[in-house]
UniProtKB/TrEMBL annotation:
<protein>
    <submittedName>
        <fullName>Elongation factor Tu GTP-binding domain-containing protein 1 isoform X1</fullName>
    </submittedName>
</protein>
<dbReference type="GO" id="GO:0003746">
    <property type="term" value="F:translation elongation factor activity"/>
</dbReference>
<keyword id="KW-0342">GTP-binding</keyword>
<feature type="compositionally biased region" description="Basic and acidic residues">
    <location>
        <begin position="475"/>
        <end position="484"/>
    </location>
</feature>
<dbReference type="InterPro" id="IPR027417">
    <property type="entry name" value="P-loop_NTPase"/>
</dbReference>
<dbReference type="Pfam" id="PF00009">
    <property type="entry name" value="GTP_EFTU"/>
</dbReference>
<feature type="compositionally biased region" description="Basic and acidic residues">
    <location>
        <begin position="438"/>
        <end position="452"/>
    </location>
</feature>
<keyword id="KW-0648">Protein biosynthesis</keyword>
<dbReference type="Pfam" id="PF00679">
    <property type="entry name" value="EFG_C"/>
</dbReference>
<dbReference type="InterPro" id="IPR000640">
    <property type="entry name" value="EFG_V-like"/>
</dbReference>
<dbReference type="Pfam" id="PF14492">
    <property type="entry name" value="EFG_III"/>
</dbReference>
<feature type="compositionally biased region" description="Basic and acidic residues">
    <location>
        <begin position="917"/>
        <end position="937"/>
    </location>
</feature>
<dbReference type="InterPro" id="IPR020568">
    <property type="entry name" value="Ribosomal_Su5_D2-typ_SF"/>
</dbReference>
<feature type="region of interest" description="Disordered">
    <location>
        <begin position="904"/>
        <end position="957"/>
    </location>
</feature>
<dbReference type="InterPro" id="IPR014721">
    <property type="entry name" value="Ribsml_uS5_D2-typ_fold_subgr"/>
</dbReference>
<feature type="region of interest" description="Disordered">
    <location>
        <begin position="429"/>
        <end position="498"/>
    </location>
</feature>
<feature type="domain" description="Tr-type G">
    <location>
        <begin position="17"/>
        <end position="272"/>
    </location>
</feature>
Amino acid sequence: MVLNSLDKMIQLQKNTANIRNICVLAHVDHGKTTLADCLISSNGIISSRLAGKLRYMDSREDEQIRGITMKSSAISLHYAKGDEEYLINLIDSPGHVDFSSEVSTAVRICDGCIIVVDAVEGVCPQTQAVLRQAWLENIRPVLVINKIDRLILELKFTPQEAYSHLKNILEQINALTGTLFTSKVLEERAERETESQVNPNSEQGEQVYDWSTGLEDTDDSHLYFSPEQGNVVFTSAIDGWGFGIEHFAKIYSQKIGIKKEVLLKTLWGDYYINMKAKKIMKVDQAKGKKPLFVQLILENIWSLYDAVLKKDKEKIDKIVTSLGLKIGAREARHSDPKIQINAICSQWLPISQAVLAMVCHKLPSPLDITAERVEKLMCTGSQTFDSLPPETQALKAAFMKCGSEDTDPVIIFVSKMFAVDAKALPQNKPRPLSQEEIAQRRERARQRHAEKLAAAQGQAPLHPTQDESALETSPKGEEPRGDEQQVESTTPKPVLREENNQESFIAFARVFSGVARRGRKIFVLGPKYSPAEFLQRVPLGFSAPPDDLPPVPHMACCTLENLYLLMGRELEDLEEVPPGNVLGIGGLQDFVLKSATLCSLPSCPPFIPLNFEATPIVRVAVEPKHPSEMPQLVKGMKLLNQADPCVQILIQETGEHVLVTAGEVHLQRCLDDLKERFAKIHISVSEPIIPFRETITKPPKVDMVNEEIGKQQKVAVIHQTKEDQSKIPEGIQVDSDGLITITTPNKLATLSVRAMPLPEEVTQILEENSDLIRSMEQLTSSLNEGKNTQMIHQKTQEKIWEFKGKLEQHLTGRKWRNTVDQIWSFGPRKCGPNILANRSEDFQNSVWTGPAGKASKEASRYRDLGNSIVSGFQLATLSGPMCEEPLMGVCFVLEKWDLSKFEEQGASDNQNEEQSDLVKERQGEDKTCSDGDENQKLQDGFSEPFEKRSSQKGESSLTDCYGPFSGQLIATMKEACRYALQVKPQRLMAAMYTCDIMATSDVLGRVYAVLSKREGRVLQEEMKEGTDMFIIKAVLPVAESFGFADEIRKRTSGLASPQLVFSHWEIIPSDPFWVPTTEEEYLHFGEKADSENQARKYMNAVRKRKGLYVEEKIVEHAEKQRTLSKNK
Ligand SMILES: Nc1nc2c(ncn2[C@@H]2O[C@H](COP(=O)(O)OP(=O)(O)OP(=O)(O)O)[C@@H](O)[C@H]2O)c(=O)[nH]1
Ligand SMILES: [Mg+2]
């Protein structure tokens, strides 16, 4: 029975002060969904007997089978305390790392969160991650320490031991909060410092840089978790009980006559009670006094468990009567002690009361949204709040007010789109039966039952009664069967049947201001939308989107069609949703891909993008089993993309359809969804595609057997040089230190390029600042286009300087002199971890100076050609020579850029302008001859001396015959970069996961065995205090990770399970092109060196996948085979 009618919920939605939007966050399997079950059962949506077993919020089949949550879902609950009634919008989130993007979508639309920690496992990696997410979104957390029963039943702790263990967990989690807080305060302080440096007049005389002051001045006591503050409860969700110390403080203040306030402060902590004096004293360890928490709380719980487990009926009865509880006869007699415990404890210490009371008291309502959070939500990229247009800044007040009047702007944030079966939508559901219909049905059922009874007794079936035949609507007058009838009444109208197979998308959203009304027109703002740009184009002065709006980039207009109350597995229709509520919105699928901001005013900025912890890294190519089903697959992939916040779908240049997912479990879920829901076809899936990066290193000083290279005689030097020469075609000059000089096919320009490995720190800085580099690039291009809309804000400028400073700090030494100033571009895609530095004297341009000023025609011509050089560099960094994977950590230095011939030609073109007709004619003649030349060039490379064709006439014709000059420059630059790489020692870089494994000591050995088999490296091993659990931190190549989790689980019989998160790229030390060259190497590896070369194996696998040429000998030892056959 559902206690709360829809009307009640609608009424509660209007009282914003009593709304709590909360999500449940934790490490995987710490009991979030079980806790949610308990809270839901308090509303009568599920029976309390099923709470914890049903896992109601895990509505998908695979969630139930695997026992883990994969999607976050919301439910609205009612909670009454005293006179106050609250509406709690509860969101259950997944704990598995693969689905951490679902956590981000949940956290964004909440004001508070419940952090659940398993009392045995304590703080785990995902606990840290979710706590950080909550911090980043500025939402307030409360703590639930769950699974206390495990301390009693599994670890067999005494109450005293349990107390110390719980204290320990609290310390750990508070230490984490402390680190987050400290880093934030220091960051803010540093910001203030820079501001005062920029503005020296504002704060004078502060000479000493004192980091501590910021921390000392800031009160942080409210941030920490402590039972006396009321933000911690202890629970056992599976047994249905939980308590905060307030509950016991109230009881004991009456029982022992000590003030409740005093008890509240002392029930947790090292205090004991002197019963005679009725005084509370500090615990003196020597006297063996027990803390109050142990004596008054834990011991009672322990003795109850003890009594039930020992089946001590007398004691149980005593406890039950002393607590004044009424236990049903069925539960009291039940043989399973767990059911008895549940029955007693859930009455004694109802978990939902404890948790919901804490939520309502300690977590903020939507009205309490802080100015800091609002500003953060409104400022995308490197913008600051002050740099927003005044109209936009004014919206901050609307956020803070969270008002529901008609004049308040409507602001809604859609954090994800989720798919539901169109059948499940309220409008497509069969309408509920009226009272009369129900009565009729009941009557019919009774008659059928009577008939059955009669038949069983051997009597002839009764004829339908007059009454019944009148009721039956069956056209043939046949006797309708009960189940048929059932089907008929629950099947939606035939018109909708077609839609039944369809998925309908619902936006998971929250109203931040104003009332969302059905039928209301609203702007949909994409993440790149800029209110400043809009305000320039369209004057303000309207509150609803007009129909004749000129098209504005990243903005669309739509009507709010269907609004829903999210009730876990169900949706309820709503007409309007007041501010501060979580809701579902139907009909947005054509406007919103994954997330968006909806607003009634165009001055609203898009919300900052969700911050995802996991990077999608596991790729597979998919194709339909039957080629004709390709269109379904493409459509299905599009739907999947929309339905998952983190999956990426790509169509590669090779035509492959690729899915990129966060991990194996995520991949499996996506494939299942694709097969069963979105595409509904059979698909074949490739082996996971493992990404690599290509880079170069410094030449090694020692060989493969650790002998110094310089001292040895190179046995295979001749062989080696031959190989090197074959890689570089003739016509390209390579000097001894790797400078490549190459001329464009038309011989008009010559480029000299060198490749150098960047120091590791620099690559890291580039990776970390890719957003900043992107905004620098956007600024430059908008300035280039002559737009001046985006003024560089002071803060952005400072960030750029800081970034430059960091680069300078690491690029020191003669080799790198002035390199930072010469940086011309980053690549690939203009923001990657590779650098193009321009050392040529003819044309100076760098990323720091912005675009070259609007100068003469000459300069702009250079700029255009410069763009070609940059494009060539971008192409070269996008796919390297080893296996066409992107480059990383390489600096290309353009040493010289000789355009003199091109300029000469340009000058002569000017001279010849008057005789252009004549020239055209001649070009026609020359084309034929130069075509021949081109063929020759293809045959013998660039060997043909340029002088042969150096006549004025020839040159101009050559320009045309090789295509546009800019295109030639791009190709030549790309070639130059590739060759420059090939003359250096090349290396592959592998993607690495960090892997956290929790394991008990007896399976530790097996975990290590699996790790080392898969080339994992253990970084750290830590024992959890008070348990025999170990936490192992390791790194593992992504390439070796497939099936890793399963293997670990199997080998340890499920006692250990790893969590893998992408962390960084690492150079694979072996050289993929390695062949033995030194004497020692020959001795050690033999001439063929057939021992396995990991890097070559990876490289060849990638080349094979991409259909590139792979140098492999199919018959390795032919002579041996012959000998064998002879001997037969
Ligand atoms: N002993 C004990 N087991 C519990 C308790 N709460 C939950 N469990 C068990 O822990 C397991 C995981 O519970 P879930 O509620 O699915 O955990 P979750 O945090 O939702 O897991 P994910 O959603 O996958 O992250 C289940 O087998 C539960 O029965 C508890 O209080 N005590
Ligand atoms: Mg769950």
